[in-house]
């Protein structure tokens, strides 16, 4: 037999595609040709596979070898095809009976000594195999716990090519994935640590309950960073679908912990202000990799010292903030990643940033305008809640006795408010108030009475508020009503939402 086929999975973004790895061995001058749009890592597989086969005690076939990856029109990336290539090659050479690998997906990178190394993206690969109706997969032992997360898939692991050869040839059992229990609740910063800042705490709670974006302005030491870092602690845990999506993104980026558990806590990304556009939204040569905005999907993207970020990096966020996805086009093809984040911006009011606040500011009015002007109007128009924090007073800083609410207490209210919103919007397939399109909010039965929106309409007609801002204030008002346990927002809720948007009455 000179032909063999083994199944593998390739990734384009977060989407997996089943790939047939074909091997054909023909008489002629010894050579190896690989077709099917392989990248550089796949072209180099011929040398890794050759050394791994020989160092595993197998015979390398000195024939003309053609390896084809189907579908040939789909770009193939990475080293996850190594183990499938080696197995198909040995099957084509007549060294292995491949019947035990029928409808089995084989994933893994090979070391020169025949060891099977872990690869990125195993979770979405196994999920793609399950969607295609393939119920058995063989993965590197280090990735076994991660692969076993996908329900309905029989996962087995290998640590060497020799072990896989023994299984196919003699039926030697493969390794089983390790047992994993429920993940312990992660400990982290608690909202009780924040001194004072009643307005900031209220803004954070509204932001968490509705899925809104937040901007925090104020002098150094006011608590902007402390508040932002505690936003994930008051967000409810991710449900199964969201946890799979988030875990898959971190798997592609190679950032998953070794325990193989789903990531249940909303992620938190805080890139430095020197971050480039590719680092922020994704990029790289060939096929783009996910950036911070995708790694923060279903969680929080925090930009501290936001005016210090480059203008191009900030403006690149406008599209994913609006649509919840980021489309990246590179020479090897386009990739789309989820990017449904809650953006939190923190900024000092001016470059000198005196901790005492405006009373000691050394900046001219023009300098102050230029500094905050780095945050463009279109970007700020997408921020639902914008509050200015005042310096913390000594009485608030020295207060003891547990007067501040803990994250757990606030999270309970947030979860209740989110449940109310999810029940209300279930008919249109949405869960958070921040996700509701403006036209829906302006139609019966969700349209608010004219007396409750009179001030909003006046601001819209005067030009001090955009149509986007109008809708965002209405969304925040719904969130305030959910937190306070009311079925619909009233005039006071709209007024508070205006204050949280504009800073008036703070």
TrEMBL record:
Residues 210-393 form the AAA+ ATPase domain. One of its GO terms (molecular function) is ATP binding. InterPro entries: AAA+_ATPase, CHLI-like, Mg_chelat-rel, Mg_chelat-rel_C, Mg_chelatse_chII-like_cat_dom, P-loop_NTPase, Ribosomal_Su5_D2-typ_SF, Ribsml_uS5_D2-typ_fold_subgr. Coiled coil: none annotated. Pfam families: ChlI, Mg_chelatase, Mg_chelatase_C. It comes from the Bacteria. SMART domains: AAA. Belongs to the Mg-chelatase subunits D/I family. ComM subfamily. This is Magnesium chelatase family protein. It comes from Micromonospora rhizosphaerae.
């Amino acid at each position: 037999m000179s032909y063999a086929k083994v199944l593998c999975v390739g990734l384009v973004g977060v989407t997996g595609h089943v790939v047939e790895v074909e091997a054909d061995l023909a008489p002629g001058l010894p050579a190896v040709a690989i077709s099917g749009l392989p990248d550089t890592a796949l072209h180099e597989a011929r040398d890794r596979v050759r050394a791994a086969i020989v160092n595993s005690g197998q015979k390398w076939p000195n024939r003309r070898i053609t390896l084809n990856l189907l579908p040939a029109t789909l770009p193939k990336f990475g080293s996850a095809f190594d183990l499938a290539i080696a197995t198909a090659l040995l099957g084509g050479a007549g060294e292995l009976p491949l019947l035990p690998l029928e409808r089995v997906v084989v994933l893994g990178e090979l070391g020169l000594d025949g060891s099977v190394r872990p690869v990125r993206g195993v979770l979405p690969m196994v999920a793609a195999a399950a969607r295609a109706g393939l119920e058995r997969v063989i993965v590197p032992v280090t990735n076994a716990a991660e692969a076993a997360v996908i329900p309905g898939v029989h996962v087995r692991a290998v640590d060497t090519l020799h072990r896989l050869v023994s299984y196919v040839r003699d039926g030697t059992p493969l390794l089983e994935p390790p047992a994993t229990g429920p993940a312990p609740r992660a400990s982290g910063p608690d909202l009780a640590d924040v001194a004072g800042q009643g307005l900031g705490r209220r803004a954070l709670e509204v932001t968490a309950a509705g899925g809104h974006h937040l901007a925090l302005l104020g002098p150094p030491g006011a608590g902007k960073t402390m508040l932002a870092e505690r936003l994930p602690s008051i967000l409810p845990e991710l449900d199964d679908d969201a946890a799979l999506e988030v875990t898959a993104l971190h798997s592609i980026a190679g950032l998953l912990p070794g325990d193989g558990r789903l990531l249940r806590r909303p992620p938190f990304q805080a890139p430095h202000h020197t971050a480039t556009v590719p680092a922020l939204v994704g990029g790289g040569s060939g096929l783009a990799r996910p950036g911070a905005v995708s790694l923060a999907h279903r969680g929080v993207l925090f930009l501290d010292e936001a005016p210090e970020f480059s203008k191009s990096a900030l403006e690149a966020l406008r599209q994913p903030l609006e649509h919840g996805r980021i489309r990246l086009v590179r020479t090897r093809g386009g990739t789309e990643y989820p990017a449904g984040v809650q953006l939190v911006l923190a900024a000092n009011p001016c470059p000198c940033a005196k901790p005492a606040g405006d009373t000691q500011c050394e900046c001219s009015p023009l300098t102050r305008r230029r500094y905050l002007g780095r945050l463009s109007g279109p970007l700020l128009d997408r921020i639902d809640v914008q509050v200015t924090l005042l310096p913390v007073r000594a009485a608030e800083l020295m207060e003891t006795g547990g007067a501040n609410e803990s994250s757990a207490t606030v999270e309970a209210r947030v979860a209740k408010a989110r449940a109310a919103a999810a029940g209300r919007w279930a008919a249109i397939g949405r869960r958070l108030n921040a996700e509701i399109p403006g036209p829906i909010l302006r139609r019966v039965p969700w349209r608010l009475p004219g007396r409750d929106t009179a001030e909003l309409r006046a601001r819209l007609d005067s030009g001090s508020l955009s149509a986007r801002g109008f809708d965002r204030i209405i969304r925040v008002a719904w969130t305030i009503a959910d937190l306070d346990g009311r079925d619909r927002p009233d005039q006071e809720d709209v007024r508070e939402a205006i204050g949280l948007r504009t800073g008036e009455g703070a």
